[in-house]
Amino acid sequence: NAGVTQTPKFQVLKTGQSMTLQCAQDMNHNSMYWYRQDPGMGLRLIYYSASEGTTDKGEVPNGYNVSRLNKREFSLRLESAAPSQTSVYFCASTVTGQSTQPQHFGDGTRLSIL
Amino acid sequence: GQQLNQSPQSMFIQEGEDVSMNCTSSSIFNTWLWYKQDPGEGPVLLIALYKAGELTSNGRLTAQFGITRKDSFLNISASIPSDVGIYFCEGNAGNMLTFGGGTRLMVKP
Fold first, then answer.
1. Per-window interface: A 27-86 vs B, CB < 8 A
2. Of the listed ranges A35-44, A81-90, B19-28, the one predicted with least confidence
3. What is the percent of chain A where pLDDT is above 90?
4. Do A44 and B99 touch (CB under 8 A)?
């Protein structure tokens, strides 16, 4: 009964380092999302994948890349980490990308960039 | 992008009190969703609203989809310590998913 699994849970990076955040869901959902959560700013969409093989930019895509590896997995990559990317990152999935579908979230990855 | 104004940003209440929070926007939404986030975890869906004017309850929680489709509120009755957390609204319109800034609820036993 895993739902959405994110790894790692915590990570500290130095400025300029690269890193990939992993996300996998076992609910056979078609759509997956990456958000960042900063104090007082809610959840801001970085990238999403409406279905396997497609990805689209969200509200704050700069400095990130994504890969929808297969239907289960959607990874987020920071090529050259910056302190402004210190945040909590959440992956989510929905059955489809339709607006009526609630999202299922992972427990987050807490990323600090020094 | 679309903006959702969620208020209040935080609340510190006594156990047993009722709580009310709301989200407003200048844009129209097709769906309103309310989530709760416990410390160290991801948000979990509380209530989903799909029609303007809809009023839905889930235990002590009640939420309404505003008639104008530009707002929604969430009420919690008779708060208990485990209600502590951050509550988020989400408005959906087509492919656009927008979250409010969250309401941090603290409950004093």
1. 33, 35, 40-45, 50, 59
2. A35-44
3. 79
4. yes
